[in-house]
Amino acid sequence: MNHRTILSRRKFLWRTALASSTAVLGNGTVLRSLAADRLSPPIAVFSKIYQKLKLDFDQAAEMTAAAGLDGIDCPVRPGGEIEPERVADDLPHYAEALRKRKTGMLLLTTDIQSVSAPHTEAVLRTAKQQGLRYYRLGWWRRPDNQPAEKLLAEIKARLKDLAALNRELGLCGVYQNHSPVGKTRYVGGNLAELREMVEDFDPEQIGVAFDLGHALVVHGDDWTPHFEQLKRHVKVAYVKDATKHGTFVPFGAGDIKNTDWLTRLKTMGYHAPFSLHIEFDWSDQGRNQTPAALLQALKTSAGVLRQWEATA
């Protein structure tokens, strides 16, 4: 069997699995919020999850459309769906595959922390060429031996240069609040610290990707006053479901439904894409890691998010 035959057989098996899943789960266009009669924010899946199945760009685009999603939040970083050194070639290719399925490249997730880092300008200029507005900045991790004031001063100096480049390009870099993982402590996981990081910048250049799941883990029910103080800088909403005990669970099984977060976003006039994160076990501990299982997880999660948003 030659190489072309192997590839053809793989593509056939992929399409068969996806088609079967769609037939069982319903028409993937039902939830698509970019339809003319919908005013809800679009939903972009954080497509890091596609790397679990090693999907190529066409397969990822097919999955996105079949799930009824509006597009993706694409990881452009080392080990991501797109390696930064390949962004000028791969990002347009991926974006075109999405457009062919009437979905889009809506957000980027990067490891960008400074204008001088390799590939920063290439990533941002390519993003601008593709019509993107928001990209996620890289996380800063807190060293044990560095005073917090000194670290924040260094971060803000880097953000100042990035803000200038963002202004030139018409982009906005957003920083995500992230709860600790093991011994790793992320700067800005505490929302008061995050406000100190961004408050001196124009929110059109440096903003916040607010993640209520991580905020609940760090602050519990006290997240609300922090959100109100950060609200001016909140540009993108990262959505996952979580418990206040620090467990990420299927959408609808956690504590997000007991909050008024989406009501607050709606009152703000929030219209940027939601970045939907699949952080729970969708594959039965790896025993059912198939396109069908992921498709169902995406459709179900997006459906719950849409229900939350509609009733907010």
Question: What descriptive keywords fit this protein?
Answer:
two-stranded antiparallel ribbon, disordered N terminus, TIM Barrel, about 300 residues, 10 strands, globular, alpha/beta, 8-stranded parallel beta barrel
Task: Report the portion of residues in β strands.
Answer: 5-15%
Average residue pLDDT: 90
Number of helices: 10
Task: Tell me how many strands there are.
Answer: 10
Ends apart, CA distance between termini? 56 Å
CATH class bucket: Alpha Beta
What is the CA-atom radius of gyration, in angstroms?
19 Å
Under CATH, the topology can be stated as: TIM Barrel
From the helix content, strand content and strand pairing, which structural class follows? alpha/beta
**Could you say how many structural domains there are in total?**
1
Coarse shape: globular
Quick description:
42% of the residues lie in helices and 13% in strands. By secondary structure, it is of the alpha/beta class.
SSE map:
Layout: H1 3-25, E1 43-46, H2 57-66, E2 71-75, H3 87-100, E3 104-109, H4 120-129, E4 134-136, H5 148-169, E5 172-176, H6 191-198, E6 206-211, H7 212-219, H8 223-230, E7 234-239, E8 241-242, E9 248-249, H9 261-268, E10 274-276, H10 291-311
Parallel strand pairs: 1-2, 1-10, 2-3, 3-4, 4-5, 5-6, 6-7, 7-10
Antiparallel strand pairs: 8-9
Helix pairs in contact: 1-2, 1-10, 2-3, 3-4, 6-8
